Amino acid sequence: MTVPSPPEDTPAAAAPVLELDALDVAFGFGPRRRQVLHGVSLSLAEGRTLGLVGESGSGKSTLAKAVVGLVRPSGGRVLLDGDDLAGARRDRLATLRRRVQLIPQDPYASLNPRMTAGEAIAEAIDPRRGKLYAHRDEVETLLGKVAMDPDAADRYPNAFSGGQRQRIAIARALAVRPEVIIADEVTSALDCSVQAEVLGVLRDLRAAGPLTMLFISHDLAVVRHVSDEVAVMSEGRIVEHRERDALFTAPQNAYTKTLLASVPRVRA
Ligand SMILES: Nc1ncnc2c1ncn2[C@@H]1O[C@H](COP(=O)(O)OP(=O)(O)OP(=O)(O)O)[C@@H](O)[C@H]1O
Questions:
Q1: Residues 6+ apart with CB under 8 A from 94
Q2: Which residues, at least 6 apart from 102, have a Cβ–Cβ distance to it below 8 Å?
Q3: What Å distances lie between residue 234 and 18, 40, 71, CA to CA?
Q4: What is the rounded average pLDDT for all residues in the chain?
Q5: ipTM more than 0.90?
Q6: 216 close to ligand 1 (CB < 6 Angstrom)
Q7: Is residue 228 a contact partner of residue 11, using CB atoms and an 8 Å limit?
Q8: Which residue intervals define the domain ABC transporter in the entry (predicted)?
Q9: pLDDT tens-digit map of 135-159
Q10: Whether the Cβ atoms of residue 259 and residue 60 lie closer than 8 Å to each other
């Protein structure tokens, strides 16, 4: 399939916090080598939420993993405030990586079952000396930001529902004070009502202060709800990247049109 280039009217006129520059990712070697991302370029400006949509297997999670260093790009650059993450030396990498926090898909796998919620958040505040007693006030403030009671700090993950776990994972990501949060299918494992609860927390966080977020989902209705701008991925390429309303009301790319047409309710 021939995939046209993104249109010229892409958003983010402000200086980008996160910039992907011609990012390539391939898996495997020799005849088994398969390129999954093909020259992906994207910019995300401070305080914006960029929704990344695309069907299963289009490469969205691979992009997220490449940004946080879990997958090594075979080409291109990941720039955070101009610093090259992909090319950084090992000693600087840990510091750089803290500046982008990934909220993973699975709320049942992302929290250590042997740590209380408070201990997990305290560790994120200070990875070397993150004891709960030393950071109790900040931990409780962070729990409040995700609409959890202070006493949640003393409970273990198995005491929480999926939605509550996901909110704790968000608090943990915020504890690092990252410049960018990547939310990768954070609601896909949750029931509808619980999805709404997690989306409500993200909406409140955006309203409370600048939050720069890459929000990845195959659910167009959810993306429309949380994003300022939306990029569409198909077969490892960005085919369209525009302001949210422009994309949903007047898509330009044939693939985007098909994607939107397959979910009639988001066009309403
Ligand atoms: N570690 C890996 N080794 C080999 N192939 C991989 C690896 N990770 C992902 N892939 C392949 O890369 C392609 C893109 O996968 P990716 O998980 O990034 O897609 P996605 O858009 O996030 O899909 P989903 O919404 O289902 O998670 C898929 O064909 C997948 O099989």
A1: none
A2: 64, 65, 67, 68, 70, 173, 181, 182, 184
A3: 21, 11, 19
A4: 87
A5: yes
A6: no
A7: yes
A8: 20-260
A9: 899 999 999 999 999 999 999 999 9
A10: no
Q: Which of 210, 180, 153 is nearest to 63 (CA)?
A: 180
Q: For residues 149 and 10, what is the distance between their CA atoms, to the nearest angstrom?
A: 41
Residue whose C-alpha is closest to residue 262's, from 27, 56, 33, 28: 56
CATH of 16-99+179-267, picked from 3.30.300.30, 3.40.50.300, 3.40.50.80, 3.40.50.150, is 3.40.50.300
**Mutational test site, ligand 1, from 23, 38, 62, max ligand atoms within 8 Å of CB:** 62
Assess whether pLDDT exceeds 60 at residue 219.
yes
pLDDT at residue 49 greater than cutoff 60: yes
CB atoms within 10 A of CB 153: 23
Q: Is 61 in the pocket of ligand 1 (CB under 6 A)?
A: yes
Task: Indicate the residue type of 198.
Answer: V
Query: In whole angstroms, what is the distance from residue 112 CA to residue 211 CA?
Result: 26
Closest atom of ligand 1 to 62 CA is 18
Between residues 215 and 135, which one has the greater pLDDT?
215
Distance CA 116, CA 140 (A): 13
58 lines ligand 1 (CB under 6 A): yes
User: Which residue, 46, 92, 97, 89, is CA-closest to 71?
Assistant: 97
Q: What share of the chain is helix, strand, coil (3-state, %, to 5)?
A: 40, 25, 35
Take residue 189 and report the two structure tokens written for it: 């494992």
Kindly list the domain boundaries of the chain, sorted by start residue. Answer: 16-99+179-267, 109-177
Q: Is the pLDDT of residue 127 over 90?
A: no
Which of 48, 57, 38, 64 has its CA nearest to residue 12? 48
